[in-house]
Amino acid sequence: RLLSTTVSIASLSECGTRKFLQKCNRDDGEIESVLIPSAKFDRTTLCVSTQIGCDRACKFCLTGKMGFIRNLAADEIVSQVVVGRRLVKENGMPDLTNVVLMGMGDAGRSTTEVRKAVEALVDRQRMTMAQSKVTISSVGPSPETFLELASMPGTLAWSLHSPVDAVRKHL
Fold it and tell me: What pTM does this model have?
């Protein structure tokens, strides 16, 4: 198999958002990706996972309730984008222009593999995405992790959940 993931279930919401559950070929672990079309901007954004599960345990997040299982390898992250591009074409959606690494897991917990994936996405010989169209998200990195993520060829999104520190820590 060329790709590291295989779509097992896909669903379509009334607003046109498409969720697709993928199995990782190396261990049958499951991850979710989401295609979010925008008619207003004539584009589609893809939200990809960086982990199976998550150890951050955000109170509002179902992925946090399942706990951490493992980090995804770079090829599994990139595979979600390849599959997303194929689904966009097959379903006549606006072009896939944006990728956000804010699906299952926290990108700050897997900086080595996330860096490899992001570098592949923006490489002109591979996935050819603009750096400004790749967003890397994390909820609570250490200062060192934050600097590592900020040094990657993309845009960093720090998910605060609240501007009030006590509320943010609670969430």
Answer: 0.91
